[in-house]
């Protein structure tokens, strides 16, 4: 279980994360959503100890996490938003270095590397240096590296950024499988479809503060499960209805280009970003 | 053990860039030896200037070899590649990371110094380089490796490390008992420069090379530098809130 207690991070006078209180249960797939500058990446930075909190603390299974707790850090793997790899190393070296930093036996490092690179379709490029990899390949390699150490907690900061649609779906399937094996996953993403498809619960953040924690279904339900899109001179305007009958009744009284559909998490995000979060 | 992981990383880098590293370690010191030692043949302190010069050049080569192996590399890993993030995230204790860097950097300095000694072998100088000399070279490398770690941590951008090299490392290379004795400096400056680590290393290597014994005070001064900069590095890694 991950507990964030009154977690606050300030950079000079700017408060990036403001008194964040959050509990993520073991085995949960949790999403951290919010507009740019909401404090999601800073929260991941604090959870990975790259940043230290100004106030508050993070507990993992009741123990306070900091830079001097290798037994807790051993359980965590992070996929950062930026490519965080030595450019001059090849894939095998990247994996071996990671394994050594996590005190894995060499035999196990080599076996897991083989298995993961094959799974990610990277085996034939294993001798290629990171500098010569495409963005998608680098992203996949980062996933392989994160999984090499068999973590209990996986922190993902926009893990599918820069991936093509097929690779993104493959990644989703992989993450689902991992979560089924009781891996706790904390995900930040700008793809609402991704969060809706994967996360059991999501937290909405803005300006460093936690706005709401709910299931994607709960958030959609609160807005209205049915959406009517209407094409206007300004663009598409959406109205939300709790019941299908109400949406149909609204449609029947209107003329023009209208369509009825299910509300998505993206609608929730856009509505909040428009009304509350900004 | 985390130290071994860091040493493995350094070894991988050394293997890959062996020729570049070796050549880079050789060129400047060789020029100094050829120009100042063989080209301009003078007598200094009652013996050929080359005999005075070689221990100084070996000392500055270990300094450059160690500092360059750590500072620029770590700076790039921290600010540009972000590869250092993975070390911070990993369970490898951060003190082990620092120790690994220092040992790795010292070995690189020692290697560079040994290459220069090897190149001067054909010149029959009669200078003595023994196990004690290599220990001093290693210790000097350790001091400049830890300085490299600290500089790379405090650097705000890629230009900061070369800037530090220009303002601190290069003047030290010329002034610290390498090309001429600090005894010839004006009082005040002489004492300040003599206290710098490279002056101590040059002096100790020179004393051993001419058959004398190494100075314990010199070793203590080097260990003192190691401790101070080590403390700064640990403070940064364990206490700095924004890396």
User: Approximately what portion of the residues of chain B adopt beta-strand conformation?
Assistant: under 5%
What's the overall average pLDDT of chain A, rounded? 90
Taken from the alpha-carbon principal axes, the silhouette of chain A is globular
Question: End-to-end distance of chain B, in Å?
Answer: 24 Å
In what range is the share of β-strand residues of chain A?
A: 25-35%
Strand order of the largest sheet of chain A: 6-7-8-3-9-10
Q: Give a quick account of the main beta sheet of chain B: strands, pairing sense, barrel closure.
A: 2 strands, antiparallel
Count the E strands of chain B.
Answer: 2
Q: Biggest sheet of chain B, strands in spatial order?
A: 1-2
Low-confidence stretches of chain A: none
Q: Order of helices and strands of chain A, N to C?
A: EEEHEEHEHHHEHEHEEHEEHEH
Whole-number total of structural domains of chain B? 1
Helix count of chain A equals 10
The CATH architecture of the largest domain in chain A can be named as 3-Layer(aba) Sandwich
The major sheet of chain A is characterized as:
6 strands, mixed
The CATH superfamily label of the largest domain in chain A reads P-loop containing nucleotide triphosphate hydrolases
- Determine Rg of chain B (CA atoms, Å): 18 Å
Structure characterization notes:
- The complex is a heterodimer of chains A (278) and B (243).
- Chain A has 278 residues and is an alpha/beta fold.
- Chain A contains ten helices and 13 strands.
- Chain A folds into two domains: 214 residues, P-loop containing nucleotide triphosphate hydrolases (Rossmann fold, 3-Layer(aba) Sandwich), CATH 3.40.50.300; 59 residues, no CATH class.
- In chain A, 37% of the residues lie in helices and 28% in strands.
- In chain A, the strands form three sheets. A six-stranded mixed beta sheet of chain A has the order 6-7-8-3-9-10, sandwiched between helices.
- In chain A, strand 7, helix 6 and strand 8 form a beta-alpha-beta unit.
- Chain A is globular, with a radius of gyration of 21 Å.
- The model of chain A has no long low-confidence stretch (mean pLDDT 90).
- Chain B has one domain.
- Chain B has a two-stranded antiparallel sheet.
- Chain B is globular.
- Chain B starts with a helix and ends with a helix.
- The mean pLDDT of chain B is 90.
- At the A-B interface, helix 2, strand 6 and helix 3 of A face helix 1, helix 4 and helix 10 of B.
């Amino acid at each position: 279980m991950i507990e964030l207690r009154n977690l606050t991070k300030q950079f000079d006078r700017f408060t990036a994360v403001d008194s964040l209180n959050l509990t993520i249960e073991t085995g949960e797939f949790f999403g951290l959503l919010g507009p740019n500058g909401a404090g999601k990446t800073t929260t991941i930075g604090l959870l990975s100890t790259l940043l230290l909190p100004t106030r508050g603390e993070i507990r993992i299974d009741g123990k306070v996490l900091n830079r001097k707790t290798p037994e807790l850090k051993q359980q965590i793997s992070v996929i950062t938003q930026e490519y965080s790899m030595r450019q001059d190393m090849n894939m095998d070296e990247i994996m071996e270095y990671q394994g050594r930093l996590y005190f894995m036996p060499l035999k196990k490092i080599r076996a897991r590397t083989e298995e993961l690179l094959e799974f990610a379709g990277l085996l034939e490029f294993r001798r290629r240096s990171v500098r010569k990899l495409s963005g998608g390949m680098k992203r996949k390699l980062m996933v392989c590296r994160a999984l090499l150490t068999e973590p209990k907690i996986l922190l993902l900061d926009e893990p599918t950024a820069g991936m093509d649609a097929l690779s993104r779906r493959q990644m989703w399937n992989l993450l689902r499988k991992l979560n089924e094996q009781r891996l706790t996953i904390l995900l930040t993403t700008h793809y609402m479809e991704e969060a809706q498809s994967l996360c059991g619960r999501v937290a909405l953040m803005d300006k460093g503060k936690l706005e709401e924690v709910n299931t994607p279904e709960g958030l959609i339900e609160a807005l209205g499960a049915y959406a009517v899109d209407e094409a206007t001179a300004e663009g598409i305007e959406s109205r939300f209805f709790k019941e299908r009958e109400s949406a149909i009744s609204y449609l029947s009284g209107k003329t023009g280009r209208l369509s009825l559909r299910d509300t998505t998490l993206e609608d929730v995000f856009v509505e909040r970003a428009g009304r509350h979060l900004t | 053990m985390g130290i071994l992981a860091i040493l493995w990383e350094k070894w991988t880098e050394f293997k890959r860039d062996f020729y570049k590293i070796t050549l880079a370690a050789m060129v400047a010191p060789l020029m100094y030896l050829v120009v100042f030692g063989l080209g301009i043949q003078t007598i200094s302190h009652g013996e050929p200037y080359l005999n005075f010069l070689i221990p100084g050049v070996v000392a500055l080569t270990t300094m450059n070899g160690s500092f360059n192996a750590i500072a620029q590399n770590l700076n790039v890993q921290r600010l540009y590649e972000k590869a250092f993030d993975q070390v911070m995230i990993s369970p490898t204790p951060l003190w082990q990371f620092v120790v690994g860097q220092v040992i790795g950097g010292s070995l690189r300095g020692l290697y560079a110094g040994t290459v220069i000694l090897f190149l001067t072998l054909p010149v029959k100088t009669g200078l003595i380089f023994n196990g004690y000399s290599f220990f001093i070279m290693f210790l000097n490398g350790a001091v400049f490796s830890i300085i490299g770690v600290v500089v790379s941590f405090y650097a705000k951008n890629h230009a900061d490390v070369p800037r530090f090299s220009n303002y601190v490392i290069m003047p030290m290379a010329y002034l610290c008992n390498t090309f001429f004795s600090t005894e010839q400096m004006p009082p005040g400056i002489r004492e300040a420069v003599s206290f710098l680590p490279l002056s101590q290393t040059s002096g100790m290597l020179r004393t051993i090379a001419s058959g004398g014994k190494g100075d314990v005070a010199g070793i203590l001064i080097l260990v003192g530098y190691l401790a101070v900069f080590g403390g700064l590095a640990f403070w940064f890694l364990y206490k700095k809130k924004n890396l």
